[in-house]
What does this fold into?
Amino acid sequence: MPLPHIVFDLGWVLIGWQPEVAFADHFPDPQAARDWLEQIDFHDWNRTQDGGRSLADGLAAAHARFGDLATPLAAYPAGFAATIAEPMPGTWQIAEALKSAGHRMFAITNWSADNWPAATRLYPRLTTLFEDIVVSGQEKLLKPDPAIYLTLTDRNGIAPTDCLFIDDSATNVDGARAVGMDAIHFTGATALAEALHQRGIALG
It folds into this structure.
């Protein structure tokens, strides 16, 4: 039986993300920063960039909606690298083991095009660990849209049914299953290793 192709999500699977860190100059108290992020609907604002809106347009939209309350957002582009400085414990080792075992390795990430270069600078192994990475902001598609999964399979000439997808979002996992992929809901490296073992996928 051929080895499945492995498709990783990145954020909260391989790379941690603490957006409040970007605003430390404005909010020395991280909880105050998190409260402010909630006030300005940061999650939805950021997701729109992940879907293809530029950061410049995003900043303008936030100011139009929230006025001066949105002013600290201007620090986000320069501070973004600090928000992804911590790798997720244990998962890189699993990914490396899967590659060493002969699996073809891919990734699909909801990530803005403007912020993507910071990821490859901080984690250059991304460009050699994975054959191809589908970046939502570049494609103007977001998980769990079926089209983003099929973008990966179509341009690499692989079948969804030959793929195993790993993501920390249950919604994105359901999206992968809907196009025919096997999928694992990521909750940590130990649980991932066990889920792979249950599928007969050895890590060496």
